[in-house]
Every structure is written in structure tokens, then in C-alpha cells.
Amino acid sequence: MTGVTVLSRQEQVAQGLPEPWDRLAPHSVRALLTSGVPVSCARGEAVDGDLGIVCDGTLGVERYLSDGRRVLTVLFRPGDLFDLRRHERLQQGKLIALGEVWSLALDPAAWERCLARFADIGPAVVRQLEDHAGRMQDHAADLAAKTPLERLASVLFEFRRWPGADHAEQGPARVRIPIMRRDIADYVGLKPETVSRALRELHGRRLIASAPDVPDEIRLVDVPAMRLLANGGAPRRSTGRSGF
Amino acid sequence: MTGVTVLSRQEQVAQGLPEPWDRLAPHSVRALLTSGVPVSCARGEAVDGDLGIVCDGTLGVERYLSDGRRVLTVLFRPGDLFDLRRHERLQQGKLIALGEVWSLALDPAAWERCLARFADIGPAVVRQLEDHAGRMQDHAADLAAKTPLERLASVLFEFRRWPGADHAEQGPARVRIPIMRRDIADYVGLKPETVSRALRELHGRRLIASAPDVPDEIRLVDVPAMRLLANGGAPRRSTGRSGF
DNA sequence: CGACTTCTTGAGGAACGTCAACCGCAGTGG
DNA sequence: CCACTGCGGTTGACGTTCCTCAAGAAGTCG
């Protein structure tokens, strides 16, 4: 399950390359793929190499506060480009695998050559960065102002928006939770217990549902209500003085 | 206080252009400045134009949740490039002035020409984006895991790190709070009352001090302790089980 | 089977948000 | 000059919320 599978995985990625990369011309894609080496990581492992593209699984930037509290500041999903070359010397956390992860590690020099040679890669990268900035802003809004329930709803939509193989098989209202509760908690700024309770509450309100044997396969029962909730439809308690 | 001051302000900016722009060759700077038109905004006003450089004051991306809660997801300080061209159609908030603000609005077409013509501007922009991404990650970590006290300490350092004219006059351990309490609160995910109490607590612990007549001019009395606090040195209560 | 991890559930308490009131200041108009 | 108004900031009392702690359920691996 190493050499050959790796290649087939590259091909597979080339086929259904998500979001910005799918607009690349065939030779750009080929150059991108041959300039990188496939790497696999087990859960918890640090990803070596600070430049690459996620092929499968979820990566996260992990940061520990002085007293041990853990935070996940960013998540990377299949198709995402991660570039942490300026990261290390800023002590801004470590990139780790939040599950079984396949990624395409890029050699910086080769990457620059690739950028210089193929005109369509540059815009794709810019688009990536802009998307990323947008997600970070959404995330900041979640963390700054939302209740646990709202954060959970929001993060479920975030999971759903992510491109990836999952989407094809399941209906549009289905979401597979790709990471552990603890990682969700560290990402949305809650404790695992609270995440658990919030999901329970969403079930209780008939907003989501899941088969008992696959609790991580969630169906969004009431999408509009979930969307409203994710956008801040449920204030903390009283004082729902909307309108100003 | 319009036509002439504007020009002089441009010159002034060109002189002490902060962080990434100061490394530009003189003609690059000149091109940058002549490609933009100076704009001033009063507090609360939306900034027209979605591409530009902040010259003086503080801008913020403001977002309202469905029920009226307000969040500031990003702050822009003098020297920062803001590019919200993809922002509008993603309904990701509005750029508003958090005080009296001078900025240099850039015409997208002219900007692209500038980018294409001067080789040193591109890297400066990339550096900007990377810095920005780093700050967003710091901010996410603040919001996700830190207590009000820690958030305040952190945001004070953020204010201090910002380049700007303020720095020259005051000592290195002095910070001027550039925005209102309410804006601080909406930025760090607290309520103004809590911000007030946290500042009071910092005073009480002899970590910061300020003259009674200028309460927004803060002196960092114990920088190491403040730094530790900003990095998460004070957990919520017990369970300070550091080390894992 | 036991050791371990992840997830869940429950009870209790600290903490931050909520609400209300007050202070100081600036602008306004009689 | 002073009352009036509005705004930003502060302080205090109170209550909900979410974290803490502990224990149990369910799955995995040796």
C-alpha cells in the first residue's frame, strides 16, 4: 500500500482536483503533480514540509498556549494549498494531521518554477488565498460572537462546503464530520463536552439527524433553520432586540 | 484642510511608509502613490472603494449577525493593504472607519499595471498577505481559548506591534488604544463592560498603568508578565495541568 | 480479557453577559 | 450662564451559561 497506490492516488487527484485547480490546463496540472511528492501522515503526526496541497483527509494548525490549552486555528481540507514557509520563525503553531491524511508536498524551488512557467497557476493560488482569508473571517465571527449551538451549525456548513470526494456519494443535505470531537472543540473554541451537548441539542430540535450506527454521518433535516442558526439567529437569551 | 493637506499627507506617507512598503525603490513608491487617490472617512462611515492602503487611523471589517450582534473580524492599521474585491459578493461584512481615517484608494486597473511594472511591489504584497494571515491566526487563537484578561493583553500587544507614527514619540512600553471600547469588545468577542473590567483588573495587578487624564495612553509596567498573560499564562481556574 | 482512547452524561460552580444606573464630557439652545 | 440631551465609559447586582470534574459507555488494540 505504498508505491503503486501513491501514483494511483495522484491520478485520482488529477481527475477530480477540486475548486481552483480544476480550471488548470492539463499540462499545468501535470507540472503541479510531478513537482510534488505524495506524503501520508497518521493522526497526530506533524506534517513535514511547509508547502503542499492536501489530497485527502484534514490537516490543522495546532497551537499550544503557555499553560497547555490547545487551539486549532486553521483547518485544511482536500484541495487546499498550505504554505507555512513564513510560519516557523513566527512560532505560529504546527501543522498536524487530524486523521489519515494524504498530501502532496511541494518543493519550494520547483513550486516557484511552476508558478513562473504556467500562467494559470498564479490566479488559482490567489483564489485559494482569498477563499482562505474569507474562511478565516467567518471563523473569527463564529468565535467572537456565537453560542455553541451556532458555532456547531456554522462548522457543519463549513464541513459541507468543503470540496472533496465525500460530496459525490451523499446527498447535498448530508455532512460527514471529518475530525474528532476534541478537534472540533479546539477549533470552535469549546470543550468536547459542550460540543457533544450542542449536537445533542440540535438533534433534539429536529434540525439534524443521524443513524445510530454512524453518528458522524449527519443529515441536515431543516437546512433553512440551520442556516439561520449558523448566521446568528438565536441570541443568548432575552435581549433579542434585532434591528440595530 | 483638503487639497493641500492631502498632498502633504501623501508625501508624509511616502517618507515613513511602514513595514513592507519601505523597502520599495523610490519610483515604485511614487507609482503606488500616484496611482491612488487620498480619501478621508469619519468614524462609522463605510469606506468606498474595496482596494487601498491605510495611511492613518484604523479600519475594520464589520459584520452583523442576523439578530444584530456586531463583530469586527479584521482590523487594518496604517500601512496595511486592504483588498476586498472578492468580499462583497460573499456578504462578508463592510469596511468601516473606526475613527478619523485617511486612506489611499487604489484603482484596480492601475494597481494591476503597477504590479506588472514594478518587480518589487509583488513581494511586498505577498509579505503583507502573509503578515495578515498570521495576525488572523493569532486572533483566532485569542478568541478560541483565552480569558478576557488574556485577550486584552494580547490585543494591547497587537496595538503595539502595529507600525505607525505613534511609536516614534512614545517609549516602547507605551501603547495608545486607537479605537473605542465598543470596537475593542466587538473585536475580541467580549462586551464593553467586560473590556472595562479587564482593563481595571490589569491596572489592579500593576501590569499596566495610565495617567488619569489620558486613560487611552497605556504604559506596560511589567512587559514579561503581560507577555506571559497574552500567551495564555493564566488558565481559567484550577486544572493548570500544563505539559500536555 | 484488560488497558486505552473517544465520546457521552451528569452535577456543581465560576465567569461573563445582561440589565440598570451613574459619571464626565461635548454639543446645543434657551 | 445653565439646563438639557446624547454618547462613551464605568460600576454594581444578578442570572444564565459553559467550563470543570468525575464517572460511565462504547469501541479498538495488545
What are its keywords?
homodimer; globular; 244 residues; 4-stranded antiparallel sheet; alpha+beta; 3-stranded antiparallel sheet; DNA-binding
List the helices and strands and how they pair.
2 copies of one chain form a homodimer.
Chain A: H1 3-15, H2 26-34, E1 36-41, E2 51-56, E3 59-64, E4 70-76, E5 81-83, E6 94-97, E7 101-106, H3 108-117, H4 121-145, H5 148-161, H6 166-169, E8 174-176, H7 181-188, H8 192-204, E9 208-210, E10 217-220, H9 223-230
Antiparallel strand pairs in A: 1-7, 2-5, 2-7, 3-4, 3-6, 8-10, 9-10
Helix pairs in contact in A: 5-8, 5-9, 7-8
The first copy, chain A, binds a DNA duplex (30 and 30 nucleotides) through helix 8.
Q: What is the rounded Rg of chain A?
A: 19 Å
N-to-C series of helices and strands of chain A: HHEEEEEEEHHHHEHHEEH
Structure annotation, total helices of chain A? 9
Helix content of chain A: 40-55%
Largest sheet features of chain A: 4 strands, antiparallel
- What shape does the CA trace of chain A take? globular
Number of beta-strand segments of chain A: 10
Q: Taking all residues together, what is the mean pLDDT of chain A?
A: 83
Strand arrangement across the biggest beta sheet of chain A: 1-7-2-5
Sequence stretches where pLDDT stays below 50 over 5 or more residues of chain A: 1-7, 238-244
- Structural class based on helices, strands and sheet pairing of chain A: alpha+beta
- What is the subunit arrangement here? homodimer
Show the largest interface: A-B, 47 and 47 residues
Instruction: Report, as a whole number of angstroms, the end-to-end distance of chain A.
Output: 58 Å
